[in-house]
Amino acid sequence: MRVLLLSFEYLPVKVGGLAEAVTNIAEGLAELGHEVIVFTPDHGKGLGEPVERFRVLAFGEEVEVEVRKREENGVTVYSLAGGLLSESDVYGPGWEGLLKKTVLFGKASAGLLNAIIEESKPDVVHAHDWHTVFALGLIRKYFGIRSVFTVHRLNKGKIAGQYFHEANLAELAPYPDIDPEHTAAYVADMVTTVSRSYMLEEWGFFGIFEGKVTHVFNGIDCSFWNEELMETANFPREERRKRILERFGLSDGKAFMFIGRFDKAQKGVDTLLRAIELLSNDPAFAEMRFIIVGKGNPELERWAKDVEKRFPQNVRVITEILPRETVRELYGSVDFVVIPSNFEPFGLVQLEAMCLGAIPIGSAVGGIKDTVIDVRANPEGGTGFLVPPRDAFALATIMVTTKNLDTETLQRLRENGKKRARKDFTWKKACRRYLNVYTGSVDRVMSFLR
Ligand code: NHF
């Protein structure tokens, strides 16, 4: 099968989990013997060799589009440069600039497909997140290729119908304000998202497209997130913990870690900070250590730093991007990783942690709920703990409980977690399911089934 993927992020261009997901899907499909082509904006990177040039009329100006091509791990990647497509802010400049960039990407993608269609007509076009709505719409309109739209995270935004007019897709914008995710899902033959629970939590959106909606879990590449590659691979876990805590200026204790963006909407670092404040009154607190890694919202950064200042024996806050190798040392040394997200389409942290034997304590939402098995519900097969989102008290309570777990249970949770991450959430599995989505041979939700 020949598959065309459309995405605003493709490694090495990475803003969030989207880049990892799309790159792994592309390479996984290629590994399974399929021909994979990717269209992505160049974002000023200049990767690959120039192969094509054409002019595109957009917003009253002619833009010279330069197409660059590279072969990477069995995948043919075309990056589209010129005008806003060369803008280095992936999702910018500003909201207006981003919208213009998405329209230009749409027109340039249609132009590029026009140039290569005679030798390389795709069997399916697979578009990722709303930024590809114009590319998807134009490819569907001009070439009628079977199409799939994947939501990695709902944006729930509205854009002026005018942008659809500008993209030669006026028929998709009968109203002044249009939700581009809704339009992409409407246009596509199949709609997917990255976990079953997220799909059901967001049924208000996905339910509109019932009959062509399903989930495909992401995977995790445990080849990097591997204990054997750690600097301290030969030390027992307690020794590693002692060393890593020391490295961050803390004495030994039960170690809990958070890593993620400091934002108010999704990642829930505020819930963790509140939980720590609650815990500070508990006698167990003296033996608890917290390493919090992340940056973002200045107010949350200030709050985190203030908590660190108030509890210097227990809390370390690192507001810088750590090298992946250091993050691996952390995962492989701490006892627990806390993922207090308010919502999480899939989430990588809980699986990275599981690959390295750190026990996840996560919110019972989206992909966290689907990947972490709560040991209280399944004592033999459990891999971690699930708590309600936005509930600092529940999080604090479970942290006290976990602190007192016996070594045997901890060991079982670690082993179960490693097995689950390595076996149940591989990219190969994800790609096999996408292939079924492409051909329509996949199960889907029927809300009337009881
Ligand atoms: O893992 C890739 C990623 C997800 O939960 C994540 C998210 C954005 O929010 O699918 O997309």
Give a quick summary of the entry.
Strand 16, helix 13 and strand 17 form a beta-alpha-beta unit. The protein is built from 16 helices and 17 strands.
List keywords for this structure.
single chain, 450 residues, alpha/beta, Rossmann fold, 2 domains, 9-stranded mixed β-sheet, binds 1,5-anhydro-D-fructose
Give a written overview of the molecule.
The chain is an alpha/beta fold. It folds into 2 domains: 2-219 and 428-439, Rossmann fold; 227-425, 3-Layer(aba) Sandwich (Rossmann fold), CATH 3.40.50. Helices cover 39% and strands 20% of the residues. The protein has 16 helices and 17 strands. Strands 3-4-5-2-1-6-7-10-11 form a 9-stranded mixed beta sheet, with helices on both faces. α1 links the parallel β1 and β2 (35-41). α1 (17-31) crosses α16 (427-439), α9 (269-279) crosses α14 and α12 (349-355) crosses α15. The radius of gyration is 23 Å and the shape is elongated. Residues 16-18, 21, 152-153, 194, 218, 344-348, 367 line the site of 1,5-anhydro-D-fructose.
